[in-house]
Amino acid sequence: MSLLSVSHLRKSFGGAVALRDASLELRAGETLALIGENGAGKSTLIKILAGVVAPDGGSIQLDGEPATLRDPGEAHRRGFRFIHQELNFVPSLSAAENIFMGRGYPRRFGLVDWGALHARASSALRALDVNHIGARTSMARLSIGDRMLVKIAAAFVEDADAPARIFVMDEPTAALTGEESARLFRILDSLRRRGCGILYVSHRLDEVLAVADRISVLRDGETRATLTANEASKTELIELMMGHSAAEAVGPVIAPESERVVLSAQGLSGEGLRDVSFELREGEILGFAGLANAGTERLTNVLISNARTGRVTLDGASLKLFGPADAWKRGFAIVPRERRAQGLLMAHDIANNVALPHLDRVNRLRLFVDRGAERARAAEMGRRVRLRSTGTLQKVRKLSGGNQQKVVFARAVAGTPRVLLLDEPTRGVDVVAKFDIYALLRDLAAHGTGVIVVSSDHEEILQLCSRVVVMREGRVAAVVSTEALAPRRLLALCYGEATG
Amino acid sequence: MPLLLRRYGTAIGFVAVIVVFWLRLPETFLTSRNLLNITQQMSMLAVVSSTMTVVMAMGDFDLSVGSIASLAGIVAALVFVWGGSPWIAVPAALAIGLAGGLLNGFLVAYVGILPFIVTLGTLTIFSGLAFCLSGGKTIFGSAIPSSFGGFARGGLPLGPFEITIPNLTLVAVGVLLVVWVFLEQTVYGRRLYAIGGNAEAARLAGVRIRPLRLAAFGLSGLGAASAGLMLASRVASANPTQGAGLMLDAIASVFLGTTMSDEGQPRVIFSLLGVLMLGVLGNGLTQMNVDSYVREMITGSIIIVAVAASSLGRAREA
Question: Which residues in chain A are contacts of B185 at CB distance < 8 A?
Fold first, then answer.
């Protein structure tokens, strides 16, 4: 019997389509795995099931009856339990309080029944075979893995009014040890035998193949296939996730002519990175690829911070940097991952945003702002990045996402950088702006700038870079040439399914 | 129309208040003598409000300005009691203010404590110190040199207009100009506003946040000490609670100013308008014999209405 059936779900955010046509069916007593690349729509689908996001179209059926999930409370009442990938918790409260967070503490005479709270939390933890975490311990004192266990326990607390029937897990083992994962799987197994359905979302294909009965593959917001786990192979899954859509022609990748090394890193460690070494040549666009938490997202930060070990050289000279201010001064330019949170002053105008890192060079008497020079420079850089605006005095928050990103690029190129550090340079950017940015990067590289591109968009890496550094678990797993590198081989490298 | 009201609502209200006072007090309100009087009354607040704008441009607060002002006045008076001249007393008081501000800045920027907590703590510390040093008493009388007390009573005569610009007003205008140039014209001011706009983005764009925060709080301490000296000069005495009212009024005036500025940023010119509004209200209501407690209630209500109207307008616009 079908516990949960999702048909033809659609959801867009603004102009961006997150789900196009997602369907899946979860039967009682089975584990269905849901896999897909970053941005394939998995998290949107989970959010819809959790009642956090309302779909634009399509339908959800529970036990064959149409159902609407208006809010998280309703999802809980209908028997959904979620273990989310992000750890949302209140550090100052105890494990027991975090377990009951969001569902109401047990009460007696209108007051919190602390005895029952701790007893029920303890039994939920014991059910997981977790005996080393006290229910009264504050979350702040627990390790990341233990916090995850507490969050998992929260999904297993019994609720007589709304029995659990469907467990949705998003990368639950990301922070667990092998032993802890094995314990979780045993519990899932017993839940499954009791007739619950489990929707299991994970990047770890080995795990998926071991745990799941069936596997659904999402790509570009559509369910592309549903396979029986016994019959599926990893290669097949990767192929399905990637699709065969030919990469749009944006011109061939240009390899640098110079052999000169601009930037080199040897044995870089810190913030989860371990012994990372690479060389960036003059005029090279070097890609960094990896799955979530592989370490690529911290690479640029580690490179320019002093909280690291290892040796970095710029043009052959040893380099010690104490953060972004130093980095800009020494000829780096930074394009951070999140343009709203880390890139732009939204309430300020374009000229201001472009000038910010260059105030030391564009000024009068080293003290006074040179507004005229700033505006002229911003206008020139705006043309260079093909910025569409009403003028350099336009507020950045009034620009579209693609043009905002171009402002960040205008800022980066305004200082004629030696090394450009890009983190997800075209995330959430429309296609036209994306190609403008690619053209700019190639032009910069042709003039000798070394460019580092950290991106989870493999197509982007294959279109831009002549070499790619593949990272896994904080280490460099492979450095490969992108010449004749098939997308599925790059993905396989990220998963550790192939060797460089 | 809503946009117009948001941008100019406070200014329109200001003009309306002036018109009401002018009609109710035709003889006394709109006279050069009364207006100059207002500027003198408000000069201390104008100074503190200007330097408070520097701190608030970064999105921080300084709650300790009132007690730094009191402490600075006490320090100057003690120097006089010990026989020092104004040439020693004034720099000593300013140095105390600067040191207090730098302490705030150090705790905020380098230790990483929230400005609200830090300055709430130093507020009581400096206030306690002022009481300790003065023995809880007002220091006055012959120990205070007449050159010090006379400064506040003096002014710059403008012959042709038969008016005298009070010295305190001139000091306030001077501080205001310096702060305006600093915030609006220098690269440091630009970076402060960048921190206030988005601290993380500013950091990643190469702004060194910590030294700037340290300096901004230092400046705020210096401004507070100047105001403390002005207060002491005006009454030719020093009292450990003299500056107590400055902090709330300074923050209120900056907030009133933000209702008039583009994008709601604290700008020193608009902070000055905020100060003048508070001054005009106080002056007019006093002349109309409105009870001082009622006056406080009216002032508080006006601040809340102005800020609420502005943020509602902004929310609708977004």
Answer: 368-369
Chain A, chain B: beta-carbon pairs less than 8 Å apart = 74
- For residue A354, give how far its alpha carbon lies from the nearest alpha carbon of chain B (Å): 9
Please report whether residue A337 resides in a domain: no
Q: Residues B57-103: pLDDT tens digits?
A: 999 999 999 999 999 999 999 999 999 999 999 999 999 999 999 99
> Quick check: A395 and B263 CB within 8 A?
yes
The domain of A134 spans 2-242
Q: Which helix (H) or strand (E) holds A422?
A: strand A419-423
Q: Residue A367: its chain B contacts at CB < 8 A?
A: 186-188
A374-389 confidence digits (pLDDT tens): 999 999 999 999 998 8
Closest alpha carbon within chain A to B195: A345
Contacts of B197 in chain A (CB under 8 A): 345-348
Task: Report the residue count for chain A.
Answer: 500
Calpha distance B166→A308 (Å, rounded): 59
Cross-chain residue pair B265–A347, CB shorter than 8 Å? yes
Strand boundaries in A197-350, DSSP class E: 197-201, 214-219, 222-228, 261-270, 273-281, 285-289, 309-314, 317-318, 332-335
**Surface of A (334-353) touching B: CB under 8 A:** 334, 336, 341-348, 352
Q: Is A274 helix (H, G, I), strand (E, B) or coil?
A: strand
User: Which of B58, B183, B184, B187 should be substituted to probe chain A, the one whose Cβ sees the most A Cβ atoms within 10 Å?
Assistant: B187
Burial class (CB in 10 A: 0-12, 13-18, 19+), B111: exposed
Residue A395 lies in a domain: yes
**ipTM confidence score:** 0.92
Distance between CA A95 and CA A489 in Å, rounded?
A: 43
| pLDDT on residue A499 | 67
pLDDT for A247 equals: 43
**Based on the domain organization, do A171 and A265 belong to the same domain?**
no
Q: What separation in angstroms does the CA of B106 have from each of A221, A460, A492, B97, B193?
A: 51, 45, 51, 14, 19
A340 within domain boundaries: no
Inter-helix orientation angle A144-156/A114-127, to 10°: 100
- B131, B240 contact by CB (below 8 A): yes
Closest residue on chain A to B209 (Cα): A325
pLDDT of residue B317: 55
User: Which chain A residues are within 8 Å of B191, Cβ to Cβ?
Assistant: 356, 359
Residue for token digits 């080995």? A206
A348 contacts B201? CB cut-off 8 A:
no
Among A21-30, A191-200, A479-488, B265-274, where is mean pLDDT lowest? A479-488
Query: Which domains are assigned to chain B?
Result: 43-153+162-309 (1.10.3470.10)
Distance between B207 CA and the closest CA of chain A, angstroms: 6
Q: Which residues on chain B place their C-beta less than 8 Å from a C-beta of chain A?
A: 185-191, 193-194, 197-198, 200-208, 263-265
Count of other CB atoms within 10 angstroms of residue B219: 24
pLDDT tens for B97-141 read 999 999 999 999 999 999 999 999 999 999 999 999 999 999 998
Domain end among A391, A416, A441: A416
The whole-number pLDDT of residue A272 equals: 85
- Both A179 and A217 in a single domain? yes
Q: Nearest Cα to B224, choosing from B52, B39, B41?
A: B52
Smallest Cα distance from A461 to chain B, Å: 24
The total number of structural domains that make up chain A = 3
